[in-house]
Amino acid sequence: MHEFSAALSIVETAVETAKQNNVVRVTAVNVDVGEFTFLIPEQLIFNFEIASKNTVVEGAELRVTKTKGKLKCSDCNYEGDSEVDPDVPSQIAAFSPMKCPNCGSSATAIVGGKEFIITNILAEVNSS
Ligand SMILES: [Zn+2]
């Protein structure tokens, strides 16, 4: 399960960060999710709630921001945001080459958007 392993990894990172910072309760976790991870935000949030049970992260809100994928075209040297064909379902798009938005070539390589990054963790810190 793609989303579950991603959610688990977010929870583990948040728990680790919380430990290092005297956190009593994590209230929100912000993540940037690259387009080419093909993670579904709703699924990610659902799995995050399961994965965070009985941890300091339990009850925290997972806020998912989708970031654009990056392509590099070997025909015209375009490098930049990908433009996903809205008619192609993401399950299929994951396995088909992305067209260059500049020249339409399929000689493209994915150079970004396969990662998800925790950008910010909001928490209550034990100040006593
Ligand atoms: Zn091109």
Q: Mean of residue pLDDT?
A: 90
* Cα-atom radius of gyration: 18 Å
What's the structural domain tally? 2
Name given to the CATH architecture of the largest domain: 2-Layer Sandwich
Q: From N to C, what is the helix and strand string?
A: HEHEEEHEE
Strand count: 6
Going across the biggest sheet, name each strand in turn. Answer: 2-1-6
Under CATH, the topology of the largest domain can be stated as hypothetical protein PF0899 fold
List descriptors.
3 helices; 128 residues; three-stranded antiparallel β-sheet; single chain; hypothetical protein PF0899 fold; alpha+beta; binds zinc ion
Protein model, in words:
This protein is 27% helix and 32% strand. By secondary structure, the chain is of the alpha+beta class. The strands form 2 sheets. The protein has a 3-stranded mixed β-sheet with strand order 2-1-6, with helices on one face. Strands 4-3-5 form a 3-stranded antiparallel β-sheet, with no helix packed on it. The chain starts with a helix and ends with a strand. The model has no long low-confidence stretch (mean pLDDT 90). Bound molecules: zinc ion. The site of zinc ion (ZN) has 8 residues, from loops.
Can you describe this structure in just a few lines?
The protein is of the alpha+beta class and 128 residues long. 27% of the residues lie in helices and 32% in strands. Strands 2-1-6 form a 3-stranded mixed β-sheet, covered by helices on one side. The chain has a 3-stranded antiparallel β-sheet with strand order 4-3-5, with no helix packed on it.
Strand-helix topology:
Elements: H1 2-20, E1 23-34, H2 41-51, E2 61-67, E3 70-73, E4 79-81, H3 90-93, E5 108-112, E6 116-125
Parallel strand pairs: 1-2
Antiparallel strand pairs: 1-6, 3-4, 3-5
Helix pairs in contact: 1-2
Bound molecules: zinc ion.
